[in-house]
């Protein structure tokens, strides 16, 4: 099993400057390779340049440019592979008829990660039993201190250096990590995700929705207004503008950490309390899309409830369903739990008592069957139906 570990780096001022320079040089390499592909396709009879062609030029580039020569050869190859993956995804979307999304040039402020494909090649994880002595050795930078808050298990395969705001992190991808199965509980639950409550289980357990973005909306709006004011007044990135931009970035980072922390705690609660967990297979990306405009016969646009849908989309994204389901899947695998996705259609409109399905059964958060009169909370009804559908799937497999 593979697992990733993320640790905070504590570089010195000199090392922090070298880390910024490393990102800048890899960003320049990425943009130059992208420009070469664009020029070749536009001016050389639609010639396509691939990763192998550009990787073969690295030796010449390093011999000509001393700034590029100071960094790891394998990390530069990883940057070129990153561009190649972007083009492969672009052509895949074109073939599938989706929105293409042609690869774009990256500014230095938006190029935040450098990957080292192999431990020991340009980057060495130097871990010792005592936490305070943990280091990571980077070519061209030196030994950077790491705040290792938990032990690393398995064999380190790849190492990535990432910048988030003014902080630096090292991310280890480890293979052969032993599974840590939890003792059996004998419980099976279904969970229904929502925005009023984050989730409700079939055992009538309710988990509150922390709403991190909504709680920080006033602070974020004030910080964004200050950023806009300094930007319009100065017309360029002054010291005050940069300070305001850092404040906005800090608020967004805090919201992201709060959402991820809640996802980890909720997933831990579920995997420790149940052996089998059933959930809705939610297409979150499709659920938060804007509704298509409605055009009448006279050419004017009719109301399509876009404003109401925008509010729901904002609540879904604030809850972080996709993040939570990803964390839950990882923790369930590590703990030896079984995770079952089920069809989400009509889970909160179907009566768990008589099986009658109708739109009129649900009125917002209340549920009352129009046939048998069964009344309950709509989210709890959804969790019961999800558990029932997962039980049918288990019996079919058996």
Global geometry: globular
Average pLDDT taken over every residue: 87
Total strand segments: 17
Radius of gyration: 26 Å
Main beta sheet: strand number and arrangement? 7 strands, antiparallel
Q: Output the strand order for the largest sheet.
A: 2-6-7-1-5-4-3
Count of individual helical segments? 12
Q: Can you tell me the residue ranges where pLDDT is under 50 for at least 5 consecutive residues?
A: 393-398
- Portion in strands: 15-25%
Order of helices and strands: EHHHHHEEEEEEEEEHHHEHEEHHEEEEH
Q: Give the % helix.
A: 40-55%
Separation of termini? 26 Å
Classify the secondary structure makeup into a structural class: alpha+beta
Number of domains: 2
